[in-house]
Structure formats: structure tokens, C-alpha cells
Design goal:
This is LacI family DNA-binding transcriptional regulator. It comes from Altericroceibacterium indicum. The protein is of the alpha/beta class. It has 3 domains: about 10-50, lambda repressor-like DNA-binding domains (434 Repressor (Amino-terminal Domain)), CATH 1.10.260; about 65-165 and about 300-325, Rossmann fold, CATH 3.40.50.2300; about 170-295, 3-Layer(aba) Sandwich (Rossmann fold). It contains 13 helices and 12 strands. It has helices at about 10-15, 20-25, 35-45, 55-60, 85-100, 115-120, 135-145, 170-180, 195-215, 230-240, 255-265, 285-290, 300-315; strands spanning about 65-70, 100-110, 130, 150-155, 165, 185-190, 220-225, 250, 275-280, 295, 325, 330. Strand 3, helix 7 and strand 4 (about 150-155) form a beta-alpha-beta unit. Helix 1 packs across helix 2 and helix 2 packs across helix 3.
Amino acid sequence: MAEKIRTIYDLAKLAGVSGATVSRALAGKDVVNSKTAEKIRKLAADHGFRPSSIARNLRMQKKGAIGVVIPLGHDKTQHISDPFFMTLIGALADELTEKGFDLVLSRIIPDTDDWLNRMIDSDRVDGYIIIGQSNQSKTLDRVAQSYLPMVAWGAFAQGQIHCSVGTDNFLGGMLAASHLIDKGCKKLAFCGNTQAIEMALRLDGAKEAVKQSGKDVSLVETPTHLAAELSGTDIAAFLDSTDEMPDGIFAGSDLIALTAIQVLVGRGLSVPNDVRVIGFDDLLLAQTSVPTLTTIRQDITSGAKHLVECLLARINGAPTGSIVLNPELIQRAST
């Protein structure tokens, strides 16, 4: 029985060359004679030998893994199982796998200002993708001054130092509120947690739409948790306490919007006849809910691609600028 080939050194012994020559041949380096390289590759194929990705990454001084981090400074109750997180993580996993990287996922409750520095100092991955800036924009800016391989999904603010990829949340908020106003709504409510910069910009955009409408339209903010098991209670408490029932609800996420619909229907109200509801994200849930949900679409697949491309460029030492994606109004039955 032929001896099992386990390492490049076993293969080198069989081929009568050095381990370095085998390594270069399998990596496709031109410095190896073509005839020798062909012989080495054929021997490797005949013996079912595949070089260790760990060894290859060590030679390249890379770990072969990317850290994907979800910081929850603004809402510690939110879960990784949130449909938005799962959708973006899935898209990132697809992109990273195609590029030969593993994904290392972390959910972080920022307890000190150096939480990100501690992760970087652990030296476990080649770079970081941060999903959502939460209320940690200052931390990201501080770290980005000395650490290049990091990109965040989220909002872009003038003057920020860290690289971000995300939707124009201000414009998205304008589109949402303008749509409700065009549908005849006069009493708008925004449901979301504006400690997160993205949510704050969505609310600011909605306020600007109300201002530009020139109509007698009011807009109130009702702080709402992002976790579904808590947002329903928040929305119900708001409806109980308000003197004027809203005729239009702009929810900061699809999940909040769908919860709002459940609360309204549970009170005998009809959507959209009594209250029109619009969300933000355009997740699969928005397309399959009853009624189907009008929402502001974020191009999550394109966003994941941009995140990975920017990060890989930064891993290779090339700074990249932030990318702002255009939102899109998707009208369905809830408005």
C-alpha cells in the first residue's frame, strides 16, 4: 500500500524536491519549473493530497477568518435571531465563503470603552465587519484611527473616521413619511429606538418630510424596543396613553412594523383602513405577512458584497471610502 501523503514534506520526499518547491508549485508560483510543477501537482492529485488551509494562512501571515460583530449598546434585549441580523449574516457568510474566509460571529454588550480594542488585541481574525454602529460610533472612529481592517454596516455621518457601508437612512425616512402623507395620513407616529444612529436618521428624515409637506401633519416619536417580545408592549402602552390615535405608523424596522400591525388588529383596528403602517428593511417577512407590508427596502445583498470587498481591500493595506446605498419605497397592502 502506498504511504499516506499527509504534509507537503511527504509530497516533497516523493517528488524528490524541497518542501519549499512543493509549496510554490501548489500555489502556482512561476519560479518553479513548469515540468516539475506539473509533476508535483499530478502526484498531489494521485494521492488525494490537499494542502492545509491553516498552513497556507500561516505562510501568508493570515488567519483565514473574519470577525462579524453585533454591538448592542442601544438595546441590550435585541437578539442575533432578529430577522435583519440573520439576513445580513447569511449574505456575508456567502460572500466570505466564496473568498475563502471563515466567519466568526460575536454578539457584544459594550460594557467598557475598550471592548473593540480587546477583541482586536486577541488577534484571532484578519479583520472585522461591525453590523450596526449602535451607539458606538465614537468607539469605531477612535479605533479606526490606528486599525485599518474594519468596516461597519450602518449610517454615514459627515466627518466620521471609520468606513461604513449602508443605506441613506435620512432619505429612507423621508420616503416613508412622504408616502404616508400622500396617502392622506395626518397623525404620524414613529416607533423605534433612536439611540442607534440609523434609527435617529430615519426619524430626522420623517420630520423633514413633514416639514416639506406644508400640510397640517403631526409626528410623534414613541420609543420602542427592537426585540419583538418587548416592542408589542411598548406600542400598546403608547396607544393607551395617546390622546390622538395615529392614522399612520412609520416603524424603524419591518419587525417593529409587523408587531404594530398585530397590536392594532388585536384592538379591532384595520390595517390599512384605520391605520396605515410602513416598515424599513424589506425582509422576506414583509412579503409574506398579512397584510403584506409596505416598507423601505435596503439592498442587503449588495451591502454584504460591498462590506466584504472593502474589508478585503483594507486587509491588503488599501484604505476605502464609505458607501451609501439608495433606499427604495416598496408599496404593498399595509398602506
